[in-house]
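[Automated response] Your request has been received and processed.

Submitted sequence:
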Amino acid sequence: MKPAILSTVATLLLLAPGAMWQFAAAQGAKASSAVELAQKADSLKPGEWVWAPEISRSGPVTVYVDLTRQLATVYRNGVRIGVTTVSTGKPGHETPSGVFTILQKDAKHRSSKYNSAPMPFQERLTWDGVALHAGGLPGYPESHGCIHLPYAFARLLFGTTEMHGTVVVAGRAGAQVRMAPAGVLAPIDTAGGSAAHAPLPEGEDWRWTPERSPGGPIAVVISRADQRAVVLRNGVEIGRARITLPATGDSATHALTLTKDAQGRSQWIYTGVPGHADEAGQTLDSTMLDRVRLPKPFHDAVLAAMQSGDTVLVTQAPVTAQSTGAHLAVFSDDMASQQAR
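Generated structure:
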């Protein structure tokens, strides 16, 4: 057997205990249209995936990981171009939900925590060890916190995403992760506890501190539960404001990406997240923006800072410690631990 083949076999064997059959069974399919992709995506079995990059050839890429369904969906310019089965964190090692940026890409990464285990096509989401990478796919959550992908799909995704791209992780797999107070914005300090949380004090409507993270991609989290907007750059909170959203009765999660139209004008396009696939690629009605009330200085500062590819996530999850309900955790990228899972 040739050395290259031996190396590949060894890598697959080391990826996860008992994982060899999972990779042998993993299958990918190509699709040529949105309809064909949707048909194939609805019947994926563990280890299977579908890929159709020609549907949307250019634009910002967003990855949406659905913990409940154990699926990951790739959107380019708001349009779905790929869907894959995944395996996320098992009980006791649950994959955190939230909005993340890709902090590191390493096609030949090895774990510094788990006996130098191969983590092919690794895309790091947190410095304490959560990443996208090729791994075992038994059909249920079994990782130590990472998001396992089929090997071939991980390679395709690695070649499609860029550093600082946006990854949204939502839903619930198994036992819910218990977070410290602060809800959607509860970062974790070096000891694994809740880091300092700075809600707006009484009488303060907004705060803007861009110097905390001078450059990089921006994600805005809008909470209906708390009527708050929080701005993250590279995962670090740089702004927060009290807002008023119109009462629509909508409690679903929506994701939007800032892009440019053919004339170079800024526009917001919907990402067709699960449950709202019909929104994919649609442009946000400008009248909806007019119905959102927020401090003008904050509004102007955020718009001036945002660039094409930046993301807005609208969620029912809370961002204040006093709120109740399911929490969505957004982790900063300044965690000291450099361990990889």
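Summary generated for your ticket: Residues 1-25, 174-196, 321-341 have pLDDT under 50 and may be disordered. Helices lie at 3-15, 20-25, 34-41, 151-160, 286-290, 296-305.
If you did not submit this request, please reply to this message.
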